[in-house]
Amino acid sequence: MEAANPPGMKPLAAISLTHVEFDPNDPYGPLMGYASLVPIALLVSYCTLIAFRRDLATCLMFLGQLVNEAVNYAAKKIIKEARPTEYLGKGYGMPSSHSQFVAFFAIYITIYTVKRLNFRHTAWKILISATVFALAGLVAYSRIHLTYHTPKQVAVGLLVGTCFAFIWFLLVENVFVSAIDLDTPVARWFLLRDTRSIPNILVFEYEKTMEELRARKSTRKERKIN
């Protein structure tokens, strides 16, 4: 999108990464616009988790998300199907990258939650799965509502993202994890860890933290006595 320029200045360009257009008279327009920004928020969340958690599972899921985007880019270049409107969005429209992105995210999170995470109450698994599916559905629908994609382009994006999530999860569990050695200088320098075998990481970290706090308090008391 080109920006307005003062007289005598060369043309300026605008970064359209977060630029979403909607009908100002549409009461659902703002909601649909913000829904379209969910993938960007998820990318920020990925980077934050990786930076602060250094967990192998998160790193591999993020890698899968990036490969999923590469698959979408290649598919668009091969299929070359136009978007429903020429003035909304850049590039081709088949399949929808937003739909493929959120489908991969929702399916992978659900599989990982069911297979790997243990909670004291099963309701947490249901709540997590329902939340990510609702979010994915909202994002996918927003692309149709805002006329950035046709229903077919969104449906294909959801299908491709779903299939790739299953494939990537199988690759992670059966190939990548066993092939990655965390006992190397590089892995130790980045503090990479694999917590998949711990039944409930939240409870585990809480108990370890409390043990450390009690030990430190006990040490302080002994020093005061001595």
TrEMBL record:
Keyword Endoplasmic reticulum assigned: yes
PANTHER family the UniProt entry points to: DOLICHYLDIPHOSPHATASE 1 (PTHR11247:SF1), PALMITOYL-PROTEIN THIOESTERASE/DOLICHYLDIPHOSPHATASE 1 (PTHR11247)
One Gene Ontology cellular component: endoplasmic reticulum membrane
TM spans (from-to): 31-52, 123-142, 154-171
Origin: domain of life: Eukaryota
Coarse class of the protein's main subcellular location: endoplasmic reticulum
Pathway named in the protein's UniProt entry: Protein modification; protein glycosylation
Molecular functions per Gene Ontology: dolichyldiphosphatase activity
Functional summary from the UniProt entry: Required for efficient N-glycosylation. Necessary for maintaining optimal levels of dolichol-linked oligosaccharides. Hydrolyzes dolichyl pyrophosphate at a very high rate and dolichyl monophosphate at a much lower rate. Does not act on phosphatidate.
Protein name: Dolichyldiphosphatase
Ranges for domain Phosphatidic acid phosphatase type 2/haloperoxidase: 58-169
Catalysed reaction equations from the record: a di-trans,poly-cis-dolichyl diphosphate + H2O = a di-trans,poly-cis-dolichyl phosphate + phosphate + H(+)
Family that this chain belongs to: Belongs to the dolichyldiphosphatase family.
Signal sequence, renumbered to the chain: none
Annotated organism of origin: Spizellomyces punctatus (strain DAOM BR117)
